Each structure stands twice: as C-alpha cells, then as structure tokens.
Amino acid sequence: MQFGLSESQEFLKDSARKFFAGECPSSEMRRLIETDTAYDAVLWSKLTEQGYTGIIFPEEYGGVGLGKVELMLLMEEAGRALLPGPFFSTVALAGSVLDAVASPVQKMQYLAPICRGSARATVAILEANVSWNPGDIQLSATGGKLRGEKLFVSDAAVADFLLVVARNGVFAVHAKAEGLKISPMQGMDLTRKLYSVEFRDTPAETIASGKDLARAFDVVTAALAAELVGGMQRTLDITVEYAKTRKQFGKPIGMFQAVQHQCADMYLETESSRSAVYYAGWALEENSPDAATAVSIAKMYASDAARTVGNRGIQIHGGMGFTWENDVHLYYRRAKASETAFGDATFHRERIASLVIDSAGVSRKSA
Question: DSSP code of 254?
Fold first, then answer.
C-alpha cells in the first residue's frame, strides 16, 4: 500500500479543485440554492465533459474506469466547493448501487446514461422509522408494483429514474411512472434538496434481490465521508483567513493562543478524517478484508469531526459565522445533514463492534 497519492491522483485532485473553483464558485453555489432544485443543466453538462459522472464505472458503459480512491478525491473536492445538485445522488449513490447489483443489460439501460450525463437518478431508502438498517425496511413490491412512501429522498425532483430499496429487492421506477408522487421536504442542507416519494401501485422494474447492497452502501458511505472532509478543509481555510484579518485589541485574533489552539484542533480533525477516508477508498478498491470496518471508521470519525470543525469555525468567526453572507454556516448545514446520512457515529460504532465480533467468531470456528 502506498500512503501517498500517485501522480495521476494528484493531477485529478488538483484539476477537480480548479474546475469547481471556476465553474461553481461561492456566488454560483448561492444562486443554485435559491432555486427549487439546486440543479443547473449547464453545470451538469460540464461535469459530464470532465468525465466525472462516470469516474469509477466500467468503460464498456461509458465510464472512465478509475478506482475508489479517485472517487474519494473527487468527492472531497466537490465537498470543498459545496457542490449543489444531484451529483452525489446520481453518481456516488445511484451509480454505485447499479454497479453493484444490476445485470449487464440493466447497466447498459440505466448506468450508461448516467456515465454519459444524459440521466440523473437517486435512491429511495428511508421510511417513517428513519432507519439506515436495510433489515428495517417495510415497503415491498407486489406484482411488479410498489405501494408505500419513502422519505428524505435527495434530488428526486430532477431524477429521470429512482432506485427504490424495498424489503424484497431493489426496483427502478421512472420519474413519469403512473402513481408516483414527489413532494418537497424541508432539509438542513440547502444545497441538497429532499423529497418525500409516494408510490400508489406504481410500476417498478426489478433490478436485484438486494443482497449485494452492503458493498454499494459502503462505497456511498465512504464517498459521503470524503465530501465531509472537503467541507472541513474549506471551513478551516475560511476560518484561518478570517483569523489573519480580524483584529481585536489592535492585533489579528490569529495571534491569540486560544484561537490558534482552535485552528490547530480543526486541522487535526480534518487531516485525521482525510487519512481515514483515503484508507477506506483503498480498502474498497483492493477488496481488503477490513474494508467494511474501514468505511465505518471513516464515517464515524468524519461525522463527529465535521460537526466539531463547524462549531469551532463559527465560534472563531463570532457573530459573523451566523450571518447569511458568510459561507461557514452553509458548510455547517451540510455537515449536520451528512452526519446522520448512511449512519451517524453511534450507528457505525455499533457496526464496527458487530464486524469485530463476527470476525472473532469466524476465527474461533476456523481454529
């Protein structure tokens, strides 16, 4: 294992940072969050031209065929720019699920358009019990039709199709299907719009039994943690710059030791999260036996760290941190929303314990 990024990975990270800085600066991000869907067709087209919509998917479906570490790098830079719209929902979420569970024919039908940028998608998972445990899902398909409701579905209004995780499998539902009702919900993160989706005997195509979803969700969870790392880095950058220029008692507040300690802690949280995320991406790519544990460690740490970094960033800014003109509170909103998505720190601590216990049990049986 190489602990440093390769030359091509460094190039991807740098080029992605420059791309997002040029195509989605703070002013554009703020413009998009004021719209109903936070989606812009021109920006989406440019993302496609860069190959980002197909970054980890096989070339036979129009993808670029890069690895999971490259996905982590891209999502980190997207998080740094607070990229609005359906990129995470379509590529990291729906794309990963299709890549893991769909048949070759279905990948050509659903994954290939995502890679080409001609389709947007999302995945409907949560229900009224708001549990990320697939075993708690109640909705099921009967006779090729779905009846029930999913909540907190990201970017559903701009999706061309939805993947629905049901008790008896994963199903694809077209956005214009009969009996499908999509309604907006209030969300913490203004850049990622949420919706409730109601199915009233809605026709659905079976994609898979759902037994392979764990692998797909690990990729999604690691990508979300990477996005959190990017947000932490940008929050740190904004805060340090503010500490250099804001003066109290005739000197920049960054000269006060208490402020320096806060910034140092923010840096430590960010770098530690980054290391955990990069390792999780590597473990997923290499099919390492500890991949699932590595993903849970990354998400557990990033969930807590992003909240801490956001808290300290706002504290150093003082009253300015809460004002609409300052971007720090927007990153904090993303951090709070992503903290619970795909399991919060408590969820993943329990998952790690289960994985360790299961592993110990297998070892005893082998002995």
Answer: G
Closest CA to 44 of 153, 160, 181, 184: 160
> In residues, how long is the chain?
367
- Rounded Cα distance between 208 and 125, Å, is 15
Strand partners, 153: 195
| Burial of residue 4 (number of CB atoms within 10 Å: 0-12, 13-18, 19+) | exposed
The domain 7-118 having CATH identifier 1.10.540.10: the answer here is: yes
| Predicted confidence (pLDDT) per residue in 101-133, tens digit | 999 999 999 999 999 999 999 999 999 998 898
pLDDT score for 208: 85
Q: Look-up: residue for tokens 């913490």?
A: 188
What's the rounded Cα separation, in Å, for the pair 73 and 117? 20
pLDDT tens digits along 253-265: 888 899 999 999 9
Q: How many CB atoms lie within 10 A of CB 35?
A: 12
Pair type for strands 161-166 and 121-124: parallel
Cα 37 to Cα 72: distance, rounded to the nearest angstrom:
25
Beta-sheet strands, E only, within 204-255: 205-208, 247-248, 251-252
CATH architecture of 122-208: Beta Barrel (2.40)
The CA distance from 162 to 324, in Å, is: 33
Rounded to 10 degrees, the C-alpha dihedral 229/230/234/236 comes to 20
